[in-house]
Design a protein that fits this description.
Number of helices: 2
Shape: globular
Order of helices and strands: HEEEEEHEEEEEEEE
Number of strands: 13
CATH class of the largest domain: Mainly Beta
Strand order of the largest sheet: 3-2-1-6-7-4-5
CATH topology of the largest domain: OB fold (Dihydrolipoamide Acetyltransferase, E2P)
Largest sheet: 7 strands, mixed
Structural class: mainly beta
Helix content: 10-25%
CATH superfamily of the largest domain: Copper binding periplasmic protein CusF
Strand content: over 45%
Distance between the termini: 53 Å
CATH architecture of the largest domain: Beta Barrel
Length: 184
């Protein structure tokens, strides 16, 4: 039987050995600067703010159907103006990119509004835009949905009627594909 002191020591060792789980968030915008020396990416968001993210050798770069790890600085060099979604941990000046999704230049559109319909089986969400029009978006299986609880995949997204959202989408063959959904 362990003594109280030994039990406390074991609990303290276990607590320090388990790292804190970081909540992953995401933001969308255009690359405004890549600083290879500082290992940072600056992203200008739709509201005009500029956010800076550190990147590491473990940061994944997703483009098209491929993914690379540790190639962020060389891949994004010279790609200012490219639309990206940055998945990150941390906050304020201490944000670290976990992954960067590249959507190319002039491809992503943004619509803000209120969820009016959800088809879980069809993976679609209908949003009434600020101008009163309703649009239905197919939620891509690899879409990022950023909520107050962190990022979830598009396949796990459970939209609720009445929620305010901004939908970042592309158009493919006449269909609107949501790649990033943010809850303001």
């Amino acid at each position: 039987m362990l003594t109280t002191t030994l039990r406390l020591l074991v609990i303290a060792l276990v607590a320090t050995a388990i790292p804190a789980l970081a909540i992953e968030h995401a933001t969308e915008g255009t690359i405004s600067k890549v600083d290879k020396a500082a290992k940072t990416i600056a992203v200008k968001t739709a509201d005009g703010a500029e956010e800076v993210f550190k990147f590491t050798g473990k940061t994944a770069m997703h483009a098209g159907k491929g993914a690379k790890t540790g190639a962020v600085d060389s891949y994004l060099a010279g790609k200012e103006g490219t639309h990206v979604v940055v998945h990150y941990t941390g906050e304020g000046a201490d944000k670290t990119a976990v992954a960067v999704d590249d959507f190319g230049k002039d491809t992503v559109k943004v619509s803000k509004g209120t969820v009016t319909g959800v088809d879980k089986a069809g993976h679609t969400v209908t949003v009434k835009a600020e101008d009163g029009s309703e649009q239905t978006y197919r939620v891509a299986k690899d879409a990022a949905v950023d909520s107050e609880h962190g990022v979830v995949k598009g396949t796990e997204y459970a939209a609720k009627k009445g929620e305010k959202v901004s939908v970042h989408y592309t158009e493919e063959a006449g269909e609107k594909i949501a790649h990033f959904i943010k809850h303001p």
